[in-house]
Write a structure and sequence with these properties.
Length: about 260
């Protein structure tokens, strides 16, 4: 395990595994570093993995001082990258992708960036429907984190009842429940974020976005907006996949990561 101290004094921790070029992995909401379990071994054969727990879960603390903000998450990413080194590659998913984009926009040094469906609002609408956010906040206030998760998966990621039931039966479900208290604050920050050209055009690292053909309209909008805001970035489609290709087809996902990151920057 390694750790770094972010700008506000919050301790951010991560696991290290594998051998090869350094690859920092940033998970999305209601998840922790175990989100990458299905592809961890495949990626570790080619990279030295730095599997980060974002703030408020697992190896990382909650805010040392002050209140939560996306800018603090960007500071966390920058602190990890400083510790790992300027040749670090970055793989980020969902809201973790938004954090990675903001860190890059603020000048965090990275060699190459791969973002799978960054989650944020656009002028066409929020990524997290406001009614669903209200339901999540109400469930958390009642002390019902699993109900909050079910709302998130049904009304935000648009999973059906059978898919949610299958998730409840996985080993990773308890970790998702433990992360549920972070969901509402991240949803509010994601809805407020805008990845326009004024913010992202100065990102120096070569970047590629992954977008599933079966993902939600909101995530399609945010991914395409980020790609459009970054001149020179690439957009690669994942036919037949939604927001969790790393679980549905680990071999495909590992191949996609290697295709973009296992090259000389």
């Amino acid at each position: 395990m390694r750790h770094a101290v972010s700008a506000d004094g919050t301790r951010i921790g991560w696991d290290v595994a594998g051998a090869g070029p350094p690859l920092v992995l940033l998970h999305g909401s209601v998840a922790d570093r175990a989100r990458w379990a299905a592809v961890r071994d495949g990626l570790a054969r080619r990279f030295t993995l730095h599997l980060v727990d974002r703030r408020g879960r697992g190896l990382s603390a909650a805010e040392a001082t002050g209140t939560y903000a996306l800018a603090r998450e960007a500071d966390d990413v920058a602190a990890v990258l400083r510790a790992v080194g300027p040749d670090a590659l970055v793989l980020a998913h969902s809201y973790g992708g938004t954090c990675a984009l903001e860190a890059a926009a603020r000048g965090a040094a990275m060699a190459r960036l791969l973002v799978y469906e960054p989650a944020f609002g656009t002028d066409e609408g929020p990524v997290f429907p406001l009614a669903a956010l209200a339901d999540v906040e109400a469930a958390l206030a009642r002390g019902q984190p699993e109900a909050a998760l079910e709302t998130f998966f049904a009304d935000v990621l648009l999973l059906d009842a059978a898919e949610i039931a299958a998730m409840r039966g996985t080993p990773g479900w308890p970790a998702r429940v433990a992360c549920a208290p972070t969901l509402a604050r991240e949803a509010r920050a994601a809805n407020a974020y805008r990845a326009g050209a004024a913010r992202l055009a100065a990102v120096a690292a070569p970047a590629r976005f992954l977008l599933g053909t079966e993902t939600t309209p909101a995530l399609t909008r945010s991914t395409r907006a980020a790609h459009a805001a970054m001149p020179g970035s690439e957009l690669r489609m994942l036919p037949g996949h939604g927001h969790a290709a790393m679980d549905a087809d680990p071999a495909l996902f590992v191949a996609e990561v290697e295709d973009w990151l296992a090259v000389s920057p």
